[in-house]
Amino acid sequence: MEVDDAEAALVEHYPRLVRIAYLTLSARLGRHRRVLLAHRVAQRSLPRGRRVPEAVEAGTDPAYAVVRLATLRGALARADRVDGWRRWARSAANAAPIPPRVIGLRLFPRAGGSEELALDRALARLDAPARAAFALRGVEGLDEESTARLLASAGVAAPRRAVRDAAMSGVNASLLVSGEFDPCVLQARPTDLVRRRQHVRAGVGAALAVVVAAALLGVPGSDGGTGVSGPPGSAQAALAQALDPASLLRADATAWQRADRLDFASWPARGDRTGDEALLGRALSAWGRPGASVHVSVTAGTPSTPPAAPPRLLFAGDVDGAAIVLLYDGVRLVRYAEPLDGGSGTALDFARVDGALGASASAVVLARSDGNASYLTAPWISGVSLRDLLSPSAAPQAIHRAADGVTDPVPSAQAATDANCGTTGATWPAIRLTPRAGVPGLAPFVLTDLGDLAPAHLTYATGRGAVPAEATSADATAAWAHAACRLASVRGEGVRTVNTWAFADQPLPDGAGTAQWLCTRADDWSGDDHVLVQFLPPGSAPDTPAAVSASARSTAACGPVEPGVLSGVLWKARDGRWYLLGAGSPEVASLTATGGPRSTSPTRTLVVPARQTTQAELTGRLTTGGTLDALK
User: Fold this and answer.
1) Mean pLDDT lowest for which of 18-32, 286-300, 448-462?
2) What is the pLDDT of residues 586-601, one digit of tens each?
3) Residue 503 phi, psi dihedral angles, 5° rounding
4) CA dist., res. 453 & res. 492, Å (int)
5) Which residues contact 242 (CB under 8 A, 6 or more apart)?
6) pTM for this entry
7) Strands 469-470, 456-462: parallel, antiparallel or unpaired by DSSP?
8) Could you tell me whether strands 588-594 and 617-622 are parallel, antiparallel, or unpaired per DSSP bridges?
9) 3 state SS of 553
């Protein structure tokens, strides 16, 4: 494809491209700067060379797909930089084509009504990838799968999460084509004329001062030194040592017994190919310089840079038709896999595991195929069994392990989905690991595969404080049978631990029984979190998914730091009457409902007659005297 084709597509679809950029950029920039930056991003989407080698998705005009992807990348790169304007102006790499410049005027799209204003505010609460997903679905009409693929091509680390966040925003996407969000149909107003005149005077004075200083002091030249970075070859020498198989660190078989902490650093090098220098060399070379034939997968928030020092070898051997090498550099797990039949399909996977300890450092997914997974377990694990989270009464099934700690292939939760839960035959596999006798501070625990190298550690809490314990008790298995299906919403996001907290039991009117409230909090390795509050009516089957009443990100709620949580639902009784139900954690002393039925409860649960269309606000008074708003 010639660059002339891309230019024609840019001109033809320019308003759509600018609108996508405008919606993706942050509202913190202000409407004037946001408009100009959107035009700059779209104009910078034109390829630099005469030919365009980049492949695009099937079924789309290749020329338009190229400029759309470039526009999306440019908007995401500058989405939340309030100072993005100045950075761009100082960048020599963006000198051509000449971007739009407006002096003395402020430009902004036409004002919309209250619905457009509400939509703009809702978009401002989303992060840049979610805004981009919203724009692609509303402006381009893409489905969820196409949107996720396009976001992934644009460099978004968690594209499916962005699509999901956009879908859960609850705003009207049809308004995106209104004039409120059209940066090509603009209104103009003058800037502050008095202040502009003052700035001109100050600018002239500053320029004269610079000229005088340059004349008096002269312009310093380059001293030709190497600077603080050291000689040019030092970095290459360090990288060459880190990628040398002979420099790999290896722990002995009993190192974990002498270590002061149970982590990946105390794992011995295992597998029948730990002495295969050629295999280890290929793995390290792929890490340092992955070629076009190597498929690289990176967990959200994990750098894929080469190692800064020789990494530690944890495993090298043949598993499920592939030669596997597992490495650890103190922060990341890196898995290299090449097919034994010599075909294509070499893969390199990165996962962040900094601070992993105990249960979080006790197993790694070595291979997946045909809906199964094989695990490498820590040397302090004595037994592994398979559990179905959706069958709390079923006994765990023992899993065979080889002498090197590799399990037989077992069903993986990768095939389990939220939509399939509650249907006949639905399962959610997890593994239960039992530590060796005498291992301090470690009891049997449960892990599940959420698509990353390190499986997620599942815990359970009751009572005040959301303090997690191992999810092995009868109450824990019963609660997880109702919460497990929601794990699909955080698959592939680098989840470290997931805690389900049974924070309230609530008697329902008319003798309907007692409902249970659960709060599930997923924390990932990069410090992000995802909180779901769930309501379980009485009489639910053991594997019935609880209903989600609230969802939140980047919140301390439902965790040991700030455990307080409050939520509400509308519930229909057997006689057809509707009620507003509210419940808070033990940190909540009383509840108040406003905005619909007004009521106050002196306890941490509330029941108020309501209508099916009721929209109420719940507020809780904490035992410490503060207030707590309900999660939504």
Assistant:
1) 18-32
2) 999 999 999 878 899 9
3) -95, -10
4) 10
5) 284, 288, 306, 307, 308, 309, 310, 311
6) 0.65
7) antiparallel
8) antiparallel
9) strand
